[in-house]
Amino acid sequence: MTRSPTDTTQDAAKGFAHHDHAHCVSDGVAAVAAQCAEKKLQLTPVRRRVAEILLSEHRAMGAYEILDILREEGLGSQPPVAYRALDFLVKHGFAHKVERLNAFVACAHPGAAHTPAFLICRTCNKVAEAETRPAEGLLGEAAAAAGFQIEQAVVEAEGLCPLCADDAETGK
User: How many Cα neighbours within 13 Å face the side chain of 159?
Assistant: First the structure.
């Protein structure tokens, strides 16, 4: 799936902008369910619920935070329950691990082959996903000069989302 720079910019902005969140969550769960059906993957109730939890937030969530929600809902109380579901979602491209935060975020493009970049607000912990092309630009040039072939890259940028930047400017 090739995405244009405009698509990438819109996706990143969506993570920080007001939008129809219920629609966002339902579309995301539907995309995960469709991909699982297509690939004959088992989308268990716990896996589905973890996907819903991640989709309901535009911020990275730790496994124990997710486990607390599952526990309250009677879906499991032991850490392996959350970790197995998260491993499944990450393995199949429905979620990403944000290394900087040791936490997880729903994928903006479930099932699509892409290299995400994460824009992480240091104040509110919201995370927006944008697409990168690590073989291009300065990283690609450095890799080529070293004779290195990039197979995978994780890009994480920390800063302020528009709302937190506005609050910082107004002194709130």
Answer: 11
Residue 32 belongs to what H/E stretch?
helix 21-39
Which residues lie across from 126 on neighbouring strands? 59
In 16-94, beta strands by DSSP E = none
pLDDT digits (tens, 9 = 90+) for 100-122: 899 999 998 887 777 888 999 99
pTM of the model: 0.79
Residue 123 makes CB contacts below 8 A (sequence gap 6+) with 160, 161, 164, 167, 168
Name the helix (H) or strand (E) containing 31. helix 21-39
Contact (CB, 8 A) for 3 and 114: yes
